[in-house]
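User: Could you go from structure to sequence for me? I need the amino acid at each position, not a summary. C-alpha cells:
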C-alpha cells in the first residue's frame, strides 16, 4: 500500500495497470495482491477514484450547471429562485462525486471478499471486549475489582449492547442521523451508511470558516453585526428596509451598521436598476454576503498581522545588538553635550533633573553653579550603602529595622560620616523607639523608658546638629546651601500610635484582571492574630466567601472571633455634615413621593373605585424612579419630582428604594402586618376601611422611611385612635433628645398610651422605631423596653408608632401606623419627612345623602337654565301647565339664570385674582415669556487660519459654507455672521453702485423681534456699512447672495424653532405570547406618504402602533406621550374617530403632529341624489325604511366596536403610566359653530376639553389650561360674536374663535360657567398682542393692579340689553298679524309630512305632534317674533310719514355712544 501511494504521489493520476507497470509487478499472484490493495485503499478513502468528469474543474462545472438552472427560470429571477438553483447544483455535484466513487469501486479484484466477519468472529470480538474490560479493571485497580466487574457484566449480559450497535449509535450521532434537516446535515462531522464511514472535511471546514467570519464580525461590530451577517447568509439578498425589519432593528441603527460591515468587506451590495438609465433614485440596493471575498479579506489581514509580528520580533532581536548604543543615547551627559551647542541657554531652561537609575561607581556629575543637588534615600533599616555626593541629603524614614535604639545609633554614626552639608532625617513606621506616644500595651520591643528617652534626646542634641543632621517631627527647617540659596523643608514621621490606626486595604482582582495574592495575604494576616473583629451576625455568600472558608479550614490554629457590630453601629450612628445632607435629601425625596404621587393616587383610586391590585400600585410607585433596561429604559418621572423642594442637584442614579413599597388594605391576603418584610399581595385594593402604605428611599446609600394610614369612612373609635398616634408623635419629638436612653423613649410612649386609653396598651407595637443610616435597620439602636443605649445628637431614627390587631364594629381586624424619619437634636427631635399626616388628609368620610340634599337635587333642575337657554317647563302628569304668559315666564327665567350666573362669575373672578397674586408673589415679576431667549454668540471661524483664501483679494466675499459675509475694512478682512446682518440694499448713483449692508442693532427692530436680546445693549453698534463700486453687476450679485443667505438662515431658524418641541419616543415594546388587540380597516390622520390604504391599529405593552398595509410604514405612539384620548361616534358624522392628543409632538412623515386620529368610515348609507330624502319616505318605500334601519344598526355596532377598542387603549395607558386616563366623548348637544382657523368648524365640549375632531386642522383645548374667556363683539344687532380663550401660560398666544352665532351665546356662557371658567364681555375686539406682552413683563404688577377686571364682568352687555328692553315693544306685531306674516314653509312641511303617509312611523309622528311641549311652542313663537320684526322693518323702509320719522329719531336717541342701536 505504501508503494502504491508513493507511485501515485510521484506521477499523479494513474490507471491500475499503469501503477503495476511503474511498480514492476508482473507475476499473477503479486498482481492479484496489489489489485486487492488498490481496492482497499479506495474503499477506505486513502485513494479517490478519478473519472472523465472529474478532469473538469469543479468551479467550471458549478458555473456551467448554474447557467443551465438559471436558463430554466422564466422572467427576472428572484432571490428565492436563485437560492434554489444553487441548491440543485450542489446536489448534482455531490451525486456525480458519489457515482464516480462507485465506478472506481466496481473495479475490484475477483478474490476480494470484503471485510465481513462471520458470526463466530463477531462473538469472539464481543468476548474479547469483555476480557478487555476485565483486564483494564485489574490493571487500574486490583484483581478483586476485576472479579466484581466480570460478575456485573455477566449478570447484565442480556441487556448489553453489541459493539456494532454501540458503534452505530455513535456514528449516527456524529452524522446527525437524528436530525435529517439541512441544519442538521450542516452540523454533521461524518457521513455514515451501511457500507462506508467518511469524514466530512468539507462540511467541517465550511462550518469553521463560518465561525471565523462570525467571530471577526462580533469582535468588530458586536452582536447586532452577527445578527445581520447570519440573516444574509441564511436568506440571501435583502434590501435595507427588509434587513432592519427582519433583524428587529431601527433603520437609523441598521444603516450605519450595514455600511461598517461593507467597509470591512464582510458584506457586499448588488445594484438592481428599475430602468435602463440606471438612475440611482430608481435602483434597488441589495445586501448579501460574498463569502469568497470576505474570506480573502480576512486571510489578507491575517497575513499582514503575521508579517507585522515577524517584523516586530526581528526589531526586538536587533535591539539587543544595539543595546550599548541605546544606553549611550539615554545618558544625560551625552544629552547635555548634544544640547549645549544647539542653545547656550539649554541648562537654564530646565528647572530640575531627576536621576532614578544610575551607576553607583560613577554617579552623574554635579550640574554646576546655580544648581542644588538633593540626594533622597529611605528605608535603610540600619544597613550601610554608598550614597552619591550632593548638597542636601533627605532620609525619609525607617532608620532602623526593628526600632531598637542601638540600630538608630548605628544609622546616625553612618550619617555623620557622610560629607553632605545638610542632612535631614525623619522617623518611619519601623522606628518605634522614636515614638513618644507609644503605649505600654503596644511595646513590642520590651524596652525600658530610660533607653527610649536617651535616643530621643540624642536626636535633638548639639552633637547631632554639629554633624549637620537635623531630625524633623512635625516641623520645618530652612537650609542655606553653599551657593546662598534658601530651601524650606518640612518633615513629619509616620505615627504608630493609638490615635491613628494603620489601615491596609487588600484589593481583590475583578473581572478579567489578572489574579493577585490579596486573599492569601489576608489569610496570612488573619492567622497571625489572636483576636479578630468581625460582623458575626452578617451572612455572606459567593465565590470569594467559598474560597475564604476553604483557606480558613486549612489553618492549624484560628484566632478568636469577636463581634464588632455594636461598636461599628456606635461610631456610625452619629452622622456628620455630609451624611446628614444625604439623609435630608433622602427624606425630601420620600416626602415628595408621598405628597405628590402616593397620596393623590390613592385618593383617585378610592374616589373612582378603580380596580387595581396592591402589587400593581406598589409597582407604579416604584416606577416613579424609572423602569426598564437598555433601549426601553425610562427615567425618573419628573412630573412628580419637580414639585419637591431642594431636588435640583439630585443624582438620580444614586436613588433607590430601601424595600418594595408596601400597600395593605382590608382585602390583603396577608392581613394587616406592620413589618417591613411583608410584600403587597396580588388581590384588588378594598375601597373601604383602613389602608396602610409604607416605603423608604435611599440616596447615596443613606435611608429615609415613611408610613401612613388612610381610613375610608372611619368610625369614632378609629378617629380617636389615629389622633392618639398624632399626639404621641408630637410628644415623642419633644422627649427624644441628646442623652435620653432608648428604654426611656419606649416607656414614655407606653405611659402616654395608658393615660389616653388603657385598652390600647396591649395593641401597642413592641418598639417605636430604630436607628437608620447606611443600614436601613440598625438593630443596636432599637427603641424598645430592653435597650439601654443612650441617644446622641445627629442620630437618625425611624419613628414608627402603631396599633395592631384592633377590631372594628363588624368584627374585622385592622391596624394603624404612623411612621416618619426624625433627627435627634440637643433639646428635641426634628421631623425630616413631612406631609399627608393630618386627619383632613388621611380620613375620608362617606356620609349618606340627607333629605335636604335630595330635595335640593330635585329642585336644582327647576332653577337651572337649559343649555339652549329655554326655561324648564312645569308639568303635572303629562300636561303642560301655562299659568303665566310666555313673556312673563321668559323674563322670570332669564332674570333668575342671569343672577345666578353673575354671582358665580363674581366668585370665579375673585378666586382668579387671589390665585394670580399667590402665583406670582414670590417672583414678583415676569420674564416676558423669554426664559428660553438669550443672547446667542455666532462664530464664523475659529481663527484667522480658518478664513477662506478668497479674502486675500480684499473684496467682499460670501462664504455660504460658514454662513458668513467677509467685508474688507481698512485693509483687514472682517467676517460677519449672517445672523448679525439685517438686510442688504443696492442703489445706483451716476456711474457708481452703492451697496449698503444693515446690521442688527438694539432699538431699530419692530414687531415680534423688538425684544431680541443683546450681550451689551449699551455698547456702541455699527448700524450699516456702505461700499461704492463701478461694477454694478458684481454688487447685484452680492446683494442677491446676501439676501438669499439671509432667507436661508431665517428659514433654518424657523424650522429649528418649529421642531424644538418634537420628542423622539422610546422603543415600542411589542406584546409577546398572544396577539395584540387590533382595530382593522382603519385610516390614520395625518395620512402617511403614498397611496391612502386602510391599515391596522395594535395595542402593545407600552404604546399603540399603526401598521400600514404597505409594511414599511408605521406609527408608534407610546402611552407615556398620550395627554387626552377621545372617541367620537358616527351618529351625526361619516366617520367614527379615535383621537389621541399628545403631550409632545411626534414626526409623521416630514411634519410634526400633536394629534393623531384613527378613523373608520361609516358612509355606506344610500342618499337620494336630489337631496330630498323625505320624498321616498312619503310614498312608503318599505325597502328604503329597512335600509335605513340596517344602517342605524350597522352604525351602532361600529360605534360599539370602536368604543371598546378606545376603552382598551385607556385601560392599557392607565396601567402603563400609573396615572388614570379617561376616555372622553364630545357632547354634541353642547356644540356650537365657530371659526378657530380659516374655516368654520363645529366645536364640541368634552369633560376636560373643547375639541374639533371631524376635519383637519384639529383643535384640542384643555379646559384646565384656560385662565379666562373673553366674549367680544357682543352688541345688539350683530348676528355673531367672538370668543377669546386666554391660557394660564401667558407665553402662549390666546386662541380666537370667531363668528359664533349670537343665538348660541347663552349656550356658550352657560357651558363656560358650568366648567368654572371666568368670562368677560365686551363690545369690541381687543388687541391681545400688546396686552399679553404687558402681562408677561410683570405678572405680579398686573394682578396687583386689578388683574382681569379691566375686561369687565360676564354681564357687561346684559345690563345694556335690559336697560333698553322697552324699545323692543315698539316693533311687536299684533296677534292678528302673526298668521299673516308667518312663513308657510314650516307649516307646509309639517302638513305634508302629517298627511302623506299611512306607515307606522308617520302615525307615531302624528301622535307626537298633538302634544307639543313648551320648547317647541317657544321656538315657534320666537320665529314668529323674528318674522314680524322683519315685516315691520320693511314697512318702515317704505313709509315716509312723520310718524316713521319720529320713530327713527327716537331710535337714535336710545342708541349707544358708538352709534350701535340697542334695540332687541
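Assistant: Here is the amino acid at each position, in order:
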Amino acid at each position: 500500500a505504501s508503494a502504491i501511494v508513493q507511485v501515485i504521489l510521484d506521477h499523479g493520476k494513474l490507471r491500475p495497470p499503469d501503477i503495476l507497470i511503474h511498480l514492476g509487478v508482473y507475476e499473477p499472484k503479486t498482481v492479484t495482491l496489489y489489485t486487492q490493495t488498490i481496492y482497499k485503499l479506495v474503499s477506505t478513502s486513502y485513494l479517490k477514484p478519478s473519472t472523465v468528469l472529474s478532469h473538469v474543474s469543479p468551479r467550471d462545472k458549478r458555473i456551467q450547471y448554474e447557467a443551465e438552472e438559471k436558463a430554466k427560470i422564466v422572467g427576472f429571477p428572484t432571490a428565492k429562485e436563485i437560492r434554489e438553483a444553487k441548491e440543485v447544483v450542489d446536489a448534482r455535484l455531490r451525486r456525480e462525486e458519489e457515482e464516480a466513487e462507485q465506478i472506481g469501486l466496481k473495479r475490484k479484484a475477483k478474490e476480494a471478499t470484503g471485510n465481513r466477519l462471520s458470526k463466530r468472529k463477531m462473538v469472539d470480538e464481543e468476548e474479547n471486549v469483555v476480557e478487555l474490560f476485565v483486564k483494564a479493571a485489574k490493571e487500574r485497580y486490583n484483581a478483586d475489582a476485576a472479579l466484581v466487574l466480570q460478575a456485573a457484566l455477566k449478570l447484565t449480559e442480556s441487556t448489553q449492547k453489541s459493539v456494532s450497535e454501540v458503534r452505530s449509535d455513535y456514528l449516527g450521532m456524529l452524522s446527525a442521523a437524528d436530525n435529517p434537516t439541512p441544519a442538521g446535515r450542516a452540523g454533521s462531522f461524518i457521513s455514515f451508511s451501511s457500507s462506508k464511514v467518511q469524514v466530512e472535511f468539507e462540511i467541517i471546514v465550511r462550518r469553521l470558516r463560518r465561525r471565523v467570519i462570525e467571530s471577526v464580525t462580533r469582535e468588530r461590530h458586536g452582536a447586532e453585526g452577527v445578527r445581520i451577517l447570519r440573516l444574509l447568509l441564511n436568506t440571501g439578498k435583502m434590501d435595507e428596509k427588509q434587513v432592519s425589519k427582519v433583524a428587529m432593528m431601527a433603520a437609523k441603527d441598521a444603516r450605519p451598521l450595514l455600511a461598517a460591515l461593507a467597509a470591512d468587506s464582510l458584506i457586499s451590495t448588488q445594484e438592481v436598476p428599475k430602468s435602463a438609465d440606471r438612475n440611482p433614485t430608481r435602483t434597488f440596493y441589495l445586501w448579501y454576503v460574498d463569502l469568497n471575498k470576505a474570506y480573502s479579506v480576512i486571510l489578507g489581514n491575517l497575513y499582514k498581522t503575521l508579517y507585522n509580528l515577524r517584523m516586530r520580533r526581528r526589531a526586538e532581536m536587533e535591539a539587543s545588538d544595539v543595546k550599548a548604543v541605546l544606553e549611550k543615547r539615554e545618558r544625560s551627559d551625552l544629552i547635555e553635550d548634544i544640547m549645549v551647542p544647539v542653545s547656550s541657554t539649554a541648562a537654564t531652561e530646565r528647572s530640575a533633573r531627576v536621576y532614578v537609575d544610575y551607576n553607583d561607581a560613577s554617579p552623574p556629575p554635579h550640574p554646576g553653579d546655580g544648581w542644588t543637588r538633593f540626594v533622597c534615600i529611605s528605608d535603610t533599616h540600619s544597613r550601610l550603602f554608598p550614597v552619591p555626593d550632593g548638597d542636601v541629603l533627605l532620609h525619609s524614614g525607617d532608620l532602623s529595622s526593628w526600632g531598637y535604639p542601638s540600630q538608630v545609633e548605628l544609622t546616625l554614626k553612618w550619617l555623620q560620616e557622610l560629607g553632605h552639608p545638610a542632612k535631614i532625617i525623619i522617623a518611619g513606621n519601623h522606628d518605634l523607639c522614636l515614638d513618644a506616644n507609644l503605649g505600654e500595651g503596644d511595646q513590642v520591643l520590651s524596652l525600658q523608658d530610660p533607653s527610649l528617652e536617651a535616643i530621643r534626646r540624642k536626636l535633638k542634641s548639639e552633637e547631632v546638629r554639629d554633624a549637620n543632621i537635623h531630625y524633623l517631627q512635625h516641623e520645618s527647617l530652612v537650609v542655606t546651601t553653599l551657593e546662598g540659596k534658601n530651601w524650606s523643608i518640612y518633615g513629619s514621621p509616620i505615627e504608630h500610635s493609638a490615635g491613628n490606626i494603620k489601615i491596609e486595604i487588600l484589593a481583590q482582582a475583578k473581572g478579567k484582571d489578572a489574579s493577585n495574592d490579596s486573599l492569601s495575604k489576608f489569610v496570612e494576616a488573619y492567622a497571625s492574630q489572636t483576636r479578630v473583629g468581625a460582623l458575626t451576625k452578617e451572612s455572606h455568600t459567593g465565590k470569594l466567601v467559598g474560597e475564604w472558608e476553604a483557606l480558613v479550614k486549612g489553618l492549624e490554629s484560628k484566632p478568636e472571633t469577636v463581634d464588632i457590630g455594636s461598636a461599628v453601629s456606635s461610631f456610625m450612628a452619629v452622622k456628620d455634615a455630609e451624611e446628614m445632607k444625604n439623609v435630608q435629601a433622602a427624606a425630601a425625596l420620600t416626602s415628595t413621593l408621598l405628597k405628590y404621587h402616593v397620596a393623590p393616587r390613592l385618593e383617585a383610586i378610592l374616589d373612582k373605585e378603580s380596580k387595581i391590585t396592591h402589587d400593581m400600585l406598589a409597582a407604579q410607585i416604584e416606577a416613579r424612579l424609572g423602569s426598564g433596561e437598555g433601549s426601553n429604559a425610562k427615567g425618573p418621572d419628573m412630573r412628580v419630582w419637580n414639585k419637591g423642594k431642594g431636588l435640583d442637584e439630585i443624582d438620580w442614579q444614586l436613588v433607590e428604594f430601601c424595600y418594595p413599597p408596601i400597600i395593605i388594605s382590608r382585602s390583603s391576603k396577608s392581613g394587616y402586618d406592620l413589618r417591613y418584610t411583608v410584600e403587597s399581595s396580588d388581590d384588588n385594593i378594598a375601597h373601604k376601611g383602613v389602608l396602610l402604605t409604607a416605603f423608604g428611599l435611599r440616596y447615596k446609600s443613606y435611608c429615609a422611611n415613611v408610613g401612613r394610614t388612610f381610613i375610608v369612612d372611619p368610625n369614632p373609635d378609629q378617629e380617636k385612635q389615629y389622633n392618639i398616634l398624632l399626639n404621641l408623635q408630637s410628644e415623642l419629638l419633644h422627649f427624644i433628645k441628646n442623652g435620653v436612653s432608648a428604654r426611656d423613649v419606649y416607656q414614655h410612649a407606653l405611659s402616654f398610651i395608658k393615660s389616653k386609653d388603657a385598652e390600647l396598651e396591649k395593641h401597642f407595637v413592641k418598639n417605636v422605631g430604630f436607628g437608620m443610616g447606611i443600614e436601613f435597620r440598625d438593630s443596636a439602636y432599637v427603641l424598645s423596653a430592653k435597650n439601654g443605649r443612650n441617644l446622641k445628637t445627629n442620630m437618625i431614627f425611624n419613628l414608627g408608632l402603631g396599633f395592631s390587631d384592633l377590631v372594628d364594629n363588624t368584627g374585622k381586624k385592622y391596624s394603624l401606623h404612623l411612621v416618619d424619619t426624625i433627627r435627634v437634636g440637643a433639646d428635641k427631635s426634628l421631623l425630616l419627612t413631612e406631609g399627608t399626616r393630618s386627619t383632613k388628609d388621611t380620613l375620608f368620610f362617606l356620609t349618606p345623602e340627607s333629605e335636604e340634599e335630595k330635595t335640593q337635587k330635585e329642585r336644582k333642575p327647576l332653577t337651572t337654565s337649559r343649555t339652549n337657554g329655554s326655561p324648564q317647563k312645569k308639568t303635572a302628569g303629562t300636561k303642560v301647565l301655562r299659568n303665566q304668559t310666555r313673556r312673563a315666564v321668559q323674563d322670570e327665567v332669564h332674570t333668575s339664570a342671569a343672577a345666578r350666573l353673575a354671582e358665580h362669575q363674581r366668585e370665579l373672578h375673585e378666586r382668579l385674582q387671589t390665585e394670580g397674586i399667590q402665583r406670582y408673589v414670590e417672583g414678583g415679576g415676569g420674564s416676558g415669556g423669554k426664559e428660553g431667549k438669550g443672547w446667542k454668540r455666532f462664530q464664523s471661524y475659529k481663527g484667522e487660519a480658518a478664513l477662506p483664501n478668497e479674502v486675500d483679494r480684499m473684496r467682499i466675499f460670501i462664504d455660504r459654507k460658514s454662513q458668513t459675509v467677509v467685508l474688507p475694512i481698512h485693509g483687514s478682512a472682517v467676517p460677519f455672521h449672517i445672523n448679525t446682518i439685517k438686510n442688504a440694499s443696492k442703489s445706483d448713483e451716476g456711474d457708481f453702485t452703492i451697496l449698503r449692508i444693515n446690521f442688527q442693532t438694539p432699538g431699530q427692530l419692530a414687531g415680534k423681534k423688538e425684544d431680541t436680546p443683546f450681550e451689551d445693549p449699551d455698547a456702541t453698534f455699527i448700524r450699516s456699512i456702505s461700499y461704492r463700486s463701478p461694477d454694478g453687476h458684481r454688487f447685484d450679485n452680492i446683494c442677491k447672495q446676501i439676501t438669499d443667505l439671509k432667507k436661508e438662515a431665517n428659514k433654518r431658524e424657523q424650522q429649528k424653532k418649529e421642531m424644538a418641541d418634537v420628542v423622539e419616543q422610546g422603543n415600542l415594546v411589542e406584546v409577546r405570547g398572544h396577539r395584540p388587540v387590533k382595530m382593522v380597516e382603519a385610516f390614520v390622520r395625518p395620512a402617511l406618504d403614498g397611496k391612502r390604504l386602510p391599515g391596522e391599529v395594535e395595542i402593545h405593552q407600552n404604546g399603540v402602533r399603526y401598521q400600514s398595509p404597505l409594511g414599511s410604514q408605521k406609527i408608534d405612539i407610546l402611552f407615556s406621550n398620550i395627554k387626552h384620548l377621545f372617541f367620537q361616534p358616527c351618529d351625526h358624522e361619516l366617520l367614527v374617530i379615535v383621537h389621541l392628543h399628545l403631550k409632545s409632538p411626534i414626526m409623521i412623515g416630514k411634519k410634526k403632529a400633536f394629534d393623531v386620529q384613527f378613523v373608520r368610515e361609516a358612509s355606506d348609507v344610500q342618499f337620494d341624489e336630489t337631496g330630498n330624502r323625505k320624498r321616498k319616505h312619503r310614498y312608503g318605500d318599505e325597502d328604503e325604511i329597512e335600509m335605513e334601519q340596517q344602517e342605524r344598526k350597522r352604525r351602532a355596532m361600529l360605534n360599539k366596536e370602536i368604543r371598546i377598542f378606545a376603552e382598551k387603549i385607556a385601560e392599557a395607558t392607565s396601567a402603563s403610566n400609573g396615572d388614570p386616563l379617561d376616555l372622553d366623548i364630545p357632547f354634541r348637544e353642547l356644540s356650537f359653530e365657530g371659526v378657530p382657523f380659516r374655516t368654520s368648524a363645529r366645536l364640541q365640549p368634552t369633560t376636560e376639553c373643547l375639541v374639533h375632531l371631524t376635519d383637519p386642522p384639529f383643535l384640542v383645548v384643555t379646559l384646565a389650561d384656560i385662565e379666562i374667556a373673553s366674549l367680544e363683539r357682543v352688541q345688539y344687532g350683530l348676528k355673531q360674536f367672538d370668543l377669546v380663550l386666554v391660557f394660564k401660560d401667558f407665553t402662549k398666544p390666546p386662541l380666537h374663535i370667531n363668528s359664533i352665532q349670537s343665538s348660541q351665546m347663552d349656550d356658550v356662557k352657560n357651558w363656560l360657567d358650568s366648567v368654572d371658567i371666568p368670562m368677560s364681555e365686551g363690545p369690541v375686539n381687543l388687541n391681545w398682542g400688546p396686552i399679553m406682552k404687558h402681562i408677561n413683563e410683570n405678572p405680579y404688577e398686573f394682578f396687583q393692579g386689578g388683574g382681569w377686571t379691566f375686561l369687565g364682568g360676564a354681564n357687561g352687555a346684559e345690563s345694556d340689553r335690559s336697560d333698553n328692553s322697552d324699545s323692543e315693544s315698539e316693533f311687536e306685531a299684533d296677534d292678528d298679524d302673526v298668521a299673516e306674516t308667518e312663513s308657510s314653509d314650516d307649516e307646509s312641511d309639517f302638513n305634508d309630512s302629517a298627511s302623506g303617509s299611512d306607515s307606522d312611523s308617520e302615525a307615531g309622528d302624528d301622535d307626537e305632534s298633538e302634544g307639543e311641549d313648551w320648547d317647541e311652542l317657544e321656538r315657534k313663537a320666537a320665529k314668529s317674533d323674528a318674522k314680524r320684526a322683519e315685516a315691520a322693518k320693511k314697512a318702515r323702509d317704505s313709509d315716509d310719514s312723520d310718524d316713521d320719522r319720529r320713530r327713527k329719531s327716537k331710535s337714535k336717541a336710545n342708541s349707544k355712544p358708538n352709534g350701535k342701536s340697542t334695540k332687541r
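One structural detail worth keeping in mind: Residues 1182-1217 form the longest helix (36 residues).
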